[in-house]
Fold this sequence. Notes:
The chain has helices spanning about 50-65, 140-145, 150-160, 185-195, 215-225, 245-250, and strands at about 5-10, 10-15, 25, 70, 80-85, 105, 115-120, 120-125, 135-140, 170, 180, 200-205, 210, 230, 255-260. By secondary structure, the protein is an alpha+beta fold. Strand 12 and strand 13 (about 210) form a beta hairpin. The protein starts with a strand and ends with a strand.
Amino acid sequence: MSVIVERIGTMEYLAAEGICAPHCFTTRFGGVSQGYLSSLNIGMHRGDDPRNVEQNYVNLAGLLGISCEDFVVTKQTHSDIVRAVDSTDRGKCLVEGASPECDALVTDTEGVALVVFTADCTPILLHDPVTGAVGAAHAGWRGTAADIAGKTVRAMVAGYGCDPQNIRAAIGPNIAQCCFETDADVPHAMLAAFGKEAMPFILKKGQKYYVNLKEINALALRQAGVSQIEISTECTACQPDRFWSHRRVGAQRGSQGAIIVCRR
């Protein structure tokens, strides 16, 4: 099982073969946004025309077999906050100030579609086919070091009775080790969080470090009891024509997303 590229019309997205719930990791392709935001920007605060963003969500809703009213999005702060949501959180994705402040969402409510945003950070989708519960997490390096991946798994266990061995996980496109150059603070944070098990995923070159956030988040998932993990090989910074990359272009960019729908 692996994370594969799918295309429908002009839309390109990635999907995990082992997750049977409707889901996707979006790319830049398949929307209506213009200029430097072309074309599938789903960030509401990137300077886009709100009508374009709304149409982009309509396109994604059609792909996933849902309504735009089903999306629940995050107000991300690079935290380790996981929030449980349900049907009362539906229909607020384009409403200013309505999104919960958190970096991960979980639900077991039929039809709710969880959305997290990325532009180099690591997106993680989770599905328990036994209970139907799903989770979505945005893991920047701070969130990774704070074990947001593991905390999202534990929120599904505590809230919905999931067995971690049943949970399927997918890690989507992010800034890969080849491009994630850091100072010592990042590897020190990873080692403090995960100990020597993180060492194989940290490479030192001169005074700089290169950190593999995909594999460290996979480590966090394994430590939480999840063994079925699919990992995308795509690097957002290597392919700014396909993915939004803050490292490559700065603030003049859109946002891609990782989305998963609860289907019981």
